[in-house]
Amino acid sequence: MTTTHPPTTPGLGAGVAVAVADLTEIRVREPGRIAAGWAAREHRPLVREDGRMLLVAADHPARGALGVRGAGAAMASRSDLLERLVTALGRPGVDGVLGTPDVLDDLLLLGALEGKIAIGSMNRGGLQGASFELDDRFTAYSAAEIAARGLDGGKMLTRICLDDPGTVATLEASARAVTELAERQLMAMVEPFLSTREGGRVVNQLDPDSTIKSIHIAAGLGASSAHTWLKLPVVDELDRVMDATTLPTLLLGGDPQGDPQDTYASWGRALDLPAVRGLVVGRALLFPPDGDVAAAVDIAAGLVHGGGTA
User: Fold this and answer.
1) What pTM, to 2 d.p., does this model score?
2) Angle CA(14)–CA(18)–CA(24) in degrees, nearest 5?
3) Digits of tens for pLDDT over the chain (310 positions)?
4) 152, 186 in Cβ contact below 8 A?
5) Under 8 Å between Cβ of 217 and 160
6) Burial, 265: exposed, middle or buried (Cβ in 10 Å; 0-12, 13-18, 19+)?
7) Would you give the end-to-end CA distance of the chain in angstroms?
């Protein structure tokens, strides 16, 4: 993919066109432009009139998860990933992005975050395949830094393994993050899974009852639930699963498998449930089988905000 017309970066020098190829030079010579860009960024309400949201996820690489559909290094090229993200964020109906500081700072310099929601990914220490994967330390944003940069919220992966003592540290850190974000009236996006170790790998349990149990554990984290949202997988019996909570929920896309039309259809059915308020999708939209990022994003936007079909 290529970006034919590099976007202009508002607030960082009128008429200065910034392309992906310029990013390293800016970081070397003008690193202060990142802080200035966050201070000058155009904001918008967290949700629009329809109360729904479509976010593009871009925090997988920081956990060492680079694969898409079995291609282990599909997300290895940062320039390719950024160009795909700029394309996605430029489509109508896309509300914003979820990412780590390195990705969000790049997108900021590219001018792609103006008027968009920016959610900071907080805990990326549970590296994919590591012996310590379930001790998921907070190695990216803190609540204080999210507020200082004017981000709109923070997301925390909260995997719960009853056989792994690392879980309790993750639960404690997630609870602290929920509390600190709520104190600042910022979204706390909790992504819970009941997980097990199978053959040395962490496997998330995606059956309805495991998902329901993870929802109840996640909903009780922190001193206030006023700003807590959930990020949940699309599982069977989703109507029964969603009856487990009153918290607004965004559904995740996951590593895409099978026919994209089947995926879109499952999203469409799930979005009919009242507690489901949108999608957080990364690889399924950024790396569609036909390579047409804009078309895949437009389908998802239509499903979330209306007027679209699968």
Assistant:
1) 0.91
2) 130
3) 444 334 444 434 433 568 999 999 999 999 999 999 999 999 999 999 999 999 999 999 999 888 888 788 989 999 999 999 999 999 999 999 999 999 999 999 999 999 999 999 999 999 999 999 998 999 999 999 999 999 999 999 999 999 998 899 999 999 999 999 999 999 999 999 999 999 889 999 999 999 999 999 999 999 999 999 999 999 999 999 999 999 999 999 866 677 788 888 999 999 999 999 999 999 999 999 999 999 999 999 999 998 544 4
4) yes
5) yes
6) middle
7) 24
Residues in the chain, how many?
A: 310
Cα 58 from Cα 284, distance rounded (Å): 11
Answer yes or no: are the C-beta atoms of 41 and 150 closer than 8 Å: yes
Contacts of 86 (CB under 8 A, 6+ apart): 3, 7, 107, 110, 112
State how far the alpha carbon of 297 is from the alpha carbons of 89, 267, 305, in Å.
Answer: 9, 13, 12
Smallest CA-to-CA distance from 98 within 282, 269, 248, 247 is with: 282
Quote the CA–CA distance of 143 and 182 in Å, as a whole number: 9
The rounded distance, in Å, linking the Cα atoms of 255 and 213 is: 23
Which residues does 25 contact at the CB level (< 8 Å), separation at least 6? none
Q: Name beta bridge partners: 251.
A: 232, 279
Q: Give the tokens for residue 33.
A: 């432009």
Residue 241, SS3?
helix
CA–CA separation, 282 and 280 (whole Å)? 7
CA distance 164 to 230: 23
What would the two tokens of residue 71 be? Answer: 């291609």
SS3 242: helix
Strand 276-281 relative to strand 228-233, pairing: unpaired
Q: What is the number of alpha carbons within 13 Å of residue 9 lying toward its C-beta? A: 22
For the chain, counts of helices (H) and of strands (E): 11, 9
